[in-house]
């Protein structure tokens, strides 16, 4: 199915890409209209940044020279000719491979020597791939923060388009929340992840030229060996409104279930659109359930937000939707506070959503309480509720390709 892209980007986009879980660099899913419709202190390792404009009118400007430029042969050697055993993910953008390069010179090295990197290779037939590739290069060459994934370099060699990132050992948040056989993430770690994601978004929203991330989802949150979270995949990022403008009018793309309803309905994009998406991710952290169970015909179209909203609005019922894999090992008051914050972020009217600055402050206050009192373990289902549209099975995985 196709959807019209308004105003300056009059292009038709195909909806709903399927992808298998991407371990280290997530790719993009597109969708169209669906049924559900103060400057902060910089935590950056570099001086305050200003984002390069990447709108439709100047997306083809020269690429930044702040990154390592790799040849295609370099990356072939680093991945052993993109050997299948080094494939770690696949998505709408292309394939992601593990590779090895020298820590100082970035020259390709033998497996097991130098440093490990994640190399994302654009499919030649990828839909709108070059625009996303270029946007990611332009943003991540200038934006440096502990909660944004580090882009090491790129390859633009003939028809080949590749990106080289730091390797995130634990893969995506999506894999740890939803894949069977994976050890459940403890409560305190989930709050730490939420804080890290909020810090990344707050950094973007408080730049001189604010940046709207536009594609926050569990698969785009990557985790290092200590479960420190970083935002990845900036192919859909956009500069935010400036001056007297209240919004940016743009094509409606992103991932079904995560996007703010007003953006889906109108194409009007604001930083509060990211706040809504953050509320969805926070809800996934609380419940351990996917944003949509399955998009195949015959499955319910009810989203996680639709299902959970009645429980979020009643603090006495919050425990009924908490992830049963936590085994009751979480703070009751903390869960209620996090659920109340999620509900604010998910307000259907963007005017009543908090800013990411305020969201971060609330989460840091919750995290710094340190006590994290635990509710006693009880029977598996004493504080849980089953729902036909949101079982814990990983039902949204696409068929392996």
From TrEMBL:
Class of enzymatic activity (EC top level): transferase
Matches recorded under InterPro entries: Kinase-like_dom_sf (IPR011009), Plant_Ser_Thr_Prot_Kinase (IPR050823), Prot_kinase_dom (IPR000719), Protein_kinase_ATP_BS (IPR017441), Ser/Thr_kinase_AS (IPR008271)
Feature: compositional bias, Polar residues: 42-57, 370-381
GO cellular component terms attached to this protein's record: plasma membrane
Protein name: non-specific serine/threonine protein kinase
Residues of the Protein kinase domain: 82-366
EC number(s) reported in the record: 2.7.11.1
Annotated GO MF terms: ATP binding; protein serine/threonine kinase activity
Subcellular localization, as worded in the UniProt entry: Cell membrane
Main location as per UniProt: membrane
Classification of source organism: Eukaryota, Viridiplantae, Streptophyta, Embryophyta, Tracheophyta
Pfam families documented for this protein: Pkinase (PF00069)
Membrane topology: Single-pass membrane protein
Residues annotated as binding ATP: 121
Sequence segments annotated as region (Disordered): 34-57, 370-401
Top-level taxon of the source organism: Eukaryota
GO biological process, one term: response to other organism
Keyword Lipid biosynthesis: no
Family listed: Belongs to the protein kinase superfamily.
Key words of the record: ATP-binding, Cell membrane, Disulfide bond, Kinase, Membrane, Nucleotide-binding, Serine/threonine-protein kinase, Signal, Transferase, Transmembrane, Transmembrane helix
């Amino acid at each position: 199915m196709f959807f019209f892209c308004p105003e300056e980007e009059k292009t038709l986009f195909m909806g709903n890409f399927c992808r298998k879980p991407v371990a280290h660099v997530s790719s993009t899913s597109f969708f169209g209209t669906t049924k559900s419709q103060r400057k902060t202190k910089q935590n950056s390792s570099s001086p305050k940044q200003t984002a390069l404009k990447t709108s439709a009118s100047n997306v083809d400007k020269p690429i930044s020279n702040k990154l390592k430029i790799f040849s295609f042969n370099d990356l072939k050697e680093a991945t052993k000719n993109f050997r299948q055993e080094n494939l770690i993910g696949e998505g709408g953008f292309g394939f992601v491979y593990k590779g090895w390069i020298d820590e100082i010179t970035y020259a390709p090295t033998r497996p097991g020597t130098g440093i490990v990197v994640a190399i994302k290779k654009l499919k030649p037939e990828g839909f709108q791939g070059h625009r996303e590739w270029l946007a990611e290069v332009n943003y991540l060459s200038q934006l440096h923060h502990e909660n944004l994934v580090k882009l090491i370099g790129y390859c633009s060699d003939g028809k080949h388009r590749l990106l080289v990132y730091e390797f995130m050992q634990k893969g995506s948040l999506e894999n740890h929340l939803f894949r069977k056989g994976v050890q459940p993430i403890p409560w305190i770690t989930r709050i730490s992840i939420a804080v890290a994601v909020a810090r990344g978004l707050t950094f973007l929203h408080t730049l001189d030229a604010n940046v709207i991330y536009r594609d926050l989802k569990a698969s785009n949150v990557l985790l290092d060996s200590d479960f420190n979270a970083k935002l990845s995949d900036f192919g859909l990022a956009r500069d935010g409104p400036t001056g007297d403008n209240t919004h940016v009018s743009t094509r409606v793309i992103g991932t079904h279930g995560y996007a703010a309803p007003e953006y889906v309905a109108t194409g009007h994009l604001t930083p509060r659109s990211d706040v809504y998406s953050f509320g969805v991710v926070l809800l996934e952290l609380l419940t351990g359930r996917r944003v949509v169970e399955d998009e195949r015909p015959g499955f319910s179209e009810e989203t996680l937000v639709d299902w959970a909203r009645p429980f979020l609005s009643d603090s006495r019922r919050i425990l009924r939707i908490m992830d049963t894999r936590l085994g009751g090992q979480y703070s009751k008051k903390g869960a209620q506070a996090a659920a109340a914050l999620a509900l604010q972020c998910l307000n259907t009217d963007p005017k009543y959503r908090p800013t990411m600055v305020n969201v971060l402050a609330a989460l840091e206050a919750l995290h710094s309480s340190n006590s994290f009192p635990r509710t006693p373990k009880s029977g598996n289902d004493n504080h849980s509720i089953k729902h036909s549209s949101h079982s814990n099975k990983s039902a949204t995985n696409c068929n392996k390709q």
